[in-house]
Amino acid sequence: MPFTPFDLEYTQSLWEQKVDFNLTESGVHPIRLDELLGGDESLFNELLAAEINYPHVNGNPLLRESIAELYDGAGVGNVLVTVGAAEANNIIMQTLMRPGDELLTQTPTYKQVWGLAENSGHIVRSFRLQADASWALDVDELNAGVTEKTRIIAIVNPNNPTGHIMTDAEMDAVVAAADRVGAWILADEVYRGAERLQEEETKSFYGRYDKVLAVGSMSKAYALPGLRIGWVVGPRQMVDDIWRRHEYTTITATALSNILATHALSPDVRPRLIKRTRNYIRNGFPVLEKWMNSQDGLFSYTPPEASAVTFIRYHLDINSTELMEKLCRDAGVFVGAGDSFGMDHHLRMAFGQEKAVLEEAFGRIANTLQSIA
Ligand SMILES: Cc1ncc(COP(=O)(O)O)c(C=O)c1O
What we know:
By secondary structure, the chain is α/β, with parallel strands linked by helices.
């Protein structure tokens, strides 16, 4: 069977260490260790005294408790800690998908589970988030894509790359479609907490339907991607089945990451981290928007409701991967190619950085675009 590489992550492997500005990160500028510790000496001493051992295979109980609190009705038994959302998505797919099963998912999207399904020989069907309707979900396409073989409906909400947050009606439509055929919903909610316009955190699919696996992460809303901590929250029996795959895949996340993530999700620290992320997002988007609007109609876009990225339509006659490579080579700026998300003639641009960094990077992009135009 031909192997489909994970295009976005593959291009990141190729380019992110070679450019001056990496605008492909969908999270905000990462936190430094000293900023995370915030002068907490007892935590510092705990870290120094920690044995670099295997921690609890399914995650420290205190960490799982803090994660469970983020989901109405969940308890520690509903939580499995994984090595990033990346592992969570992977072992959910391993656990659920049987020969002949189909995956139904959105487009554009972060194409991890899409690629995993294709690489295991599954049919992947998709429904659109509509570019000309502020990325609203195409409910007719969703309903048309569900078949008796649909095992999982996979969604990313808030969405990557568009930053769209589903309305209640859209969430209800996904649940109704899944319920019609008894499919599971894989709700990748790693941008929950990274809202730009609203204070209320994005609602989880967890609790709206009995067959939901909600995936979260420390990487985006908490700006701690290097911790490599993610999780799955779902029905206990299914979480235990997924845990069996976790033992085969990574065994466990690291001991130090468990300690640091527990600290990050504690009631005193979590609000500080969410605020920091939202400040980056809320201050960064106007810089991007001002720049896009100064580019003589070169771009069309719907402002994102969450996340630190915007999915932008550019009006130039050049393929998005070609343009991405040209920007890396000529401008030293790396942005996501629309191709990586299933939609050419778009770029995914990140704005979760300091203003001066953004302005320098956008200026360089403008010069390269002028040379093409
Ligand atoms: C939608 C989505 N899911 C999962 C991941 C992977 O997250 P993690 O760093 O927690 O593995 C990403 C990273 O960009 C993402 O955008």
